[in-house]
Design brief:
With about 350 residues, the protein is α/β, with parallel strands linked by helices. It contains twelve helices and 13 strands.
Length: about 350
C-alpha cells in the first residue's frame, strides 16, 4: 500500500491532541465507562451550529479540523472516508423515543436526519466545503479499517489528492446497557490495572473520534506509511494467533518490528489471544497497549493509529502505555486489535521522524 498518514486529530477520554498535555499523564480512574474529554469547540464550529449538534458530530468535526490544521492548514480535503459502527446513536434514541411518546404523530424530522450513520461525514463536508467523494463505512469492528482501505483505493486513482479518513463512535446509556447484555462491556467498575492485567467478562466501555489526512506521498516532518492492513474474523483464539503469525511472516523480510501495539482490553474472552502474542510471537519485541486509556469500542483502532502518529511525531513513547521495555528505535510498528471476533493487523513504517 502506498498510503501515508500526514496528520492526526484525536478526541477521546484521554484528551485531545490539540492540547500540550496530551499523553503526559497516566490514566487514573475507577469507573464503568470512559467518556470523551471534549475540547472547547468554539474554534472549530460556529456557535449557532454547535448547539444543534449531537456529541458524535461535535467530536468528529473537532477531530477532523485538528487533523486538517496540523497538515498545513488544509481546510478542504479532496475526499472524505469515515468508519463508524453505531453512528449517531444518541439522535437515533431521541427520534425513536419521540415516535413512542407522541404515538407517531407530529414528529419533527431533525432527529431522524441527524441520526443516520453518514451525518458526521456530511457535516464535515458542509463545514469544509468538500464536494468530492464522501463515503461512510458501517462494518462493525472493521468499519475504520474499511474506510482506510477506501482511502488507499482513492489515492491510487487520484494521485496527489488528499483524503480525510476517520473513525468515530459515541457511548450513551442505552448502548452501554445493550452491549453489557451482549458481554462486550463490564457491569462492574474498572481501573487501568484491571484492563491491562485483569481478566473479567467484557471490557470497559469507551468512545472517541480520530481523523487523519492521508495521501499517496509523505509530507511534513513526520508521516506514517501504511504498508499493509489485514482483516479477518475468528471465533477460535488459536486460529486468530495463527493468522497474525502468517501476516507477520509476510513482512519479516523487510526487517524486524520495533514495537507492537496491542488491543489488550481485560476481557477474559480475548485473554488467551493476547497472552499468546505477548509470550510466543512478540516475546522479544517492545509491547504497548492503549485500551486502558480509551476504553473499548468498535472503531478504537483509529485512536490507536492516532497514538502511533503522535508518538512518532513527538519521538516519545509514554511509559504508561508500555507492557514491557521501551523500543530502541521507532521505525516499524505493528498494530493488532480486535473488537469481539473482528481482528485487524496493521504494518506501519514511520517516515521522517
Amino acid at each position: 500500500m502506498d498510503l501515508y498518514i500526514n496528520s492526526a486529530g484525536i478526541v477521546t477520554s484521554g484528551g485531545s491532541n490539540s492540547t500540550e498535555d496530551f499523553l503526559t499523564t497516566a490514566p487514573s480512574y475507577d469507573t464503568n465507562r470512559l467518556q470523551c474529554i471534549e475540547p472547547d469547540y468554539k474554534p472549530f464550529i460556529p456557535p449557532m451550529q454547535l448547539r444543534r449538534m449531537s456529541k458524535a458530530v461535535r467530536m468528529g468535526i473537532a477531530a477532523s479540523k485538528i487533523s486538517m490544521e496540523q497538515n498545513g492548514e488544509i481546510t478542504n480535503p479532496d475526499a472524505i472516508s469515515v468508519g463508524t459502527a453505531i453512528g449517531c446513536i444518541q439522535d437515533s434514541e431521541v427520534f425513536l423515543s419521540k415516535m413512542v411518546d407522541q404515538n407517531e404523530q407530529m414528529l419533527t424530522p431533525t432527529a431522524f436526519i441527524q441520526s443516520t450513520h453518514n451525518t458526521v461525514a456530511g457535516q464535515i463536508a458542509l463545514l469544509a466545503g468538500c464536494k468530492g467523494q464522501n463515503i461512510t463505512f458501517v462494518h462493525r469492528g472493521h468499519s475504520f479499517e474499511q474506510a482506510m482501505i477506501d482511502a488507499q483505493l482513492y489515492v491510487d486513482e487520484h494521485p496527489g489528492e488528499k483524503v480525510l479518513v476517520g473513525g468515530i463512535d459515541e457511548l450513551i446509556d442505552i448502548s452501554l446497557a445493550i452491549f453489557r447484555r451482549a458481554g462486550i462491556y463490564r457491569y462492574e467498575n474498572s481501573t487501568p490495572d484491571s484492563i491491562l492485567n485483569g481478566s473479567s467478562g467484557g471490557s470497559i466501555a469507551g468512545e472517541g473520534a480520530a481523523f487523519f489526512m492521508a495521501s499517496d506521498k509523505p509530507s511534513g516532518n513526520t508521516s506514517l506509511h501504511i504498508k499493509d492492513i489485514f482483516l479477518f474474523t475468528a471465533k477460535d483464539q488459536q486460529e486468530a494467533v495463527n493468522d497474525v503469525q502468517q501476516f507477520l511472516s509476510c513482512h519479516l523480510a523487510e526487517g524486524n518490528v520495533d514495537m507492537v501495539m496491542l488491543g489488550v482490553n481485560g476481557d477474559e474472552n480475548q485473554k488467551q489471544f493476547y497472552d499468546k502474542l505477548r509470550s510466543e510471537v512478540f516475546n522479544g519485541t517492545s509491547q504497548a497497549a492503549f485500551k486502558h486509556v480509551s476504553g473499548e469500542y468498535a472503531t478504537v483502532s483509529a485512536y490507536a493509529l492516532g497514538l502511533i502518529y503522535h508518538m512518532a511525531k513527538s519521538k516519545n513513547v509514554p511509559e504508561f502505555l508500555l507492557l514491557n521495555s521501551a523500543p530502541q528505535q521507532f521505525k516499524r510498528v505493528m498494530l493488532i486489535n480486535n473488537y469481539i471476533h473482528y481482528y485487524s493487523c496493521w504494518m506501519i513504517e514511520v517516515v521522517g521522524a
